[in-house]
Amino acid sequence: xxxxxxxxxxxxxxxxxxxxxxxxxxxxxxxxxxxxxxxxxxxxxxxxxxxxxxxxxxxxxxxxxxxxxxxxxxxxxxxxxxxxxxxxxxxxxxxxxxxxxxxxxxxxxxxxxxxxxxxxxxxxxxxxxxxxxxxxxxxxxxxxxxxxxxxxxxxxxxxxxxxxxxxxxxxxxxxxxxxxxxxxxxxxxxxxxxxxxxxxxxxxxxxxxxxxxxxxxxxxxxxxxxxxxxxxxxxxxxxxxxxxxxxxxxxxxxxxxxxxxxxxxxxxxxxxxxxxxxxxxxxxxxxxxxxxxxxxxxxxxxxxxxxxxxxxxxxxxxxxxxxxxxxxxxxxxxxxxxxxxxxxxxxxxxxxx
Length: 353
Known about the structure:
Elements: H1 2-8, H2 25-37, H3 42-53, H4 60-67, H5 72-92, E1 101-112, E2 121-127, E3 130-141, E4 149-155, H6 161-175, E5 178-183, H7 190-198, E6 202-206, H8 211-219, E7 224-230, E8 238-246, E9 252-257, H9 268-274, H10 277-288, H11 298-326, H12 338-352
Parallel strand pairs: 1-5, 5-6
Antiparallel strand pairs: 1-3, 2-3, 3-4, 6-9, 7-8, 8-9
């Protein structure tokens, strides 16, 4: 598996080094994997990596120097090719033979403590002493054992959610047959719902409890399904179902959807939307694959985030391929831990160099 990764995925992340360079791309990626798996900073991680490998390995300054030579557009293209190669290998092994797959769209904020005017910095709700972040939008498959990140898009303060949603769905539809799309309440607006309708997908999201919806929650007992129109008269409007349902604690919740749901089975929406937590799980695992940094340079942050997503996809792929060989089926839950996979990747790959 490690040999396969070295030969098929690493070439897409080529550092384009001069033939006289002391280290090759594999050495840099092995170092970055070590740093990420220890959730360390590059400076300290480069020193521990040299100690662990008992050989001369790249320094933090050398790694960052070469990353800074990339443009964001170059990295987007490189990682896109890497993602597509991972996807091709998975498809070749019949990972996506199921006719339709559920996906989830989400926004991920990487908190930032630098100048709010720095490149690609976005505003976020106050948390952990800052209101600034770098933001990424992703679309993930949320079927057990197949939770690949299909695409990740960087967002700026000027990015429009509906345009990002459109790009994610357009790309995903080229790769898989989509069943349901799960999004969070941040996409509860006219333009985003228009995008969902344009793509003719089944979708589900929690509704924002604005004044109008709060009035409906007071007026009706759960479960209740209402035909709802959003938008101002004589302007863009969208129509969909508003489902008022009690959660397990008998607290009223409201979903927006175009699913064919009836009042007697409205409780099932909680189970359906629960699949979206697969994308939350993927973010937690990606944290295990992401190096820490204080760098203010966006290209470094972007590389680290995309590399964590790439390692995550490789981890999912490793569990699938090894599962097919050892268990003869695709396990719904990973049996190779992220930590074990990461350590094997940089130690074995270094041995194969």
